TrEMBL record:
Name recorded for this polypeptide: 4-hydroxy-tetrahydrodipicolinate synthase
GO MF terms held by the record: 4-hydroxy-tetrahydrodipicolinate synthase activity
Keyword Lyase (UniProt): yes
Gene3D superfamilies: Aldolase class I
Site description Part of a proton relay during catalysis, residues in chain: T46, Y109
SUPFAM superfamilies: Aldolase (SSF51569)
Family under the similarity heading: Belongs to the DapA family.
Gene Ontology annotations for the cellular component aspect, listed alphabetically: cytosol
Protein residues bound to pyruvate: T47, I206
Catalytic activity: L-aspartate 4-semialdehyde + pyruvate = (2S,4S)-4-hydroxy-2,3,4,5-tetrahydrodipicolinate + H2O + H(+)
Gene assigned in the entry: dapA
GO biological process: diaminopimelate biosynthetic process; lysine biosynthetic process via diaminopimelate
Assembly behavior: Homotetramer; dimer of dimers.
Length: 292
């Protein structure tokens, strides 16, 4: 699955001031990312505020994204949740035309056992016509997908092709790399540790900061994948403060503030999220001015 090597961007969902989806802003973002030479786009992941969108809005966003992309880059749709039966139905009903895979976060809030997580993904796998990328993000879901469960899924379910790992545990990354099938992909789910994960064998990142800095980030990832860490390191170091600011008051408030400053889209979010403080906004603007 070479199409998922490199930089994928977990796109924000732009909103108008009245809370409706800003499709002009979304078009601007898609074209900006493609011009920035990222490798693929992820629609309606966590950064896309999927949890506050209804099914009709999601369908329109997926269709619009595929239309504007027009086959230029591979597309991944975020479809996850904590009601397995509902997710299986959503996956079966998903209009897959123009999409290449599904990114599905492990169940949140319920805190299932590892067997429960395995059975959840098995049910999704059996209902999906598209390849599945697991998404382990314990900081949001409240439970961890263990390396043993990840590799069990990878060995047992042939359409489970990758995992987006945002556990932050290098012990976990090491175990996955050691025990996974050869063609199963480890993808970084955290911008700050993309380089060290790639050095272990990860094939790239699904990024937040790539929304605002697609050229810089995709160049960083490509250099790392080529093994030129000496050339990649200065880029990595230049992005550390920007990356910190992006998460200082939560995601996607920070990255939307950056996108507004870049005149890509506005920075409206849906409750319970709120826009970043004026203080942080000014820090983001200053940091952007120093990034080439």
């Amino acid at each position: 699955m070479k199409k998922f090597h490199g930089t994928g961007v977990a796109m924000v969902t732009p909103f108008n001031s009245d809370g409706s989806v800003d499709f002009n802003g979304l078009k601007s973002l898609i074209n900006y990312l493609i011009e920035g030479k990222v490798e693929y786009l992820v629609s309606l992941g966590t950064t896309g505020e999927a949890s506050t969108l209804n099914k009709e809005e999601k369908k329109k966003i997926w269709e619009f994204t595929a239309e504007i992309n027009n086959g230029r880059l591979p597309l991944v749709a975020g479809i996850g949740g904590n009601d397995t039966a509902s997710i299986v139905k959503d996956v079966r009903d998903f209009e897959s035309l123009g999409y290449d895979a599904i990114l599905s976060a492990s169940p949140y809030y319920n805190k299932p056992t590892q067997e429960g997580i395995y059975q959840h993904y098995k049910a999704i796998s059996e209902g999906s016509l598209l390849p599945i990328i697991l998404y382990n993000v314990p900081g949001r879901t409240g439970s961890n997908v263990s390396p043993e469960t990840t590799c069990r899924l990878a060995h047992d379910l042939k359409n489970v092709i990758a995992t987006k790992e945002a556990s932050g545990s290098f012990d976990q990354f090491n175990q996955i790399m050691r025990d996974k099938p050869e063609d199963f992909l480890l993808i970084s789910g955290d911008d700050p540790i993309a380089i060290p994960m790639i050095s272990l064998g990860a094939v790239g990142v699904i990024s937040v900061i790539g929304n605002a800095l697609p050229k810089q980030l995709s160049n960083l990832v490509r250099l790392s994948l080529e093994g030129d860490f000496k050339a990649a390191l200065p880029i990595h170091l230049s992005l550390i403060e920007f990356t910190r600011l992006m998460f200082a008051e939560g995601n996607p408030g920070g990255i939307k503030a950056a996108l507004k400053n870049l005149d890509i889209c506005d920075d409206h979010v849906r409750l319970p999220l709120v826009q970043v403080s004026d203080s942080l906004r000014q820090q983001v603007i200053v940091e952007l001015q120093g990034i080439s």
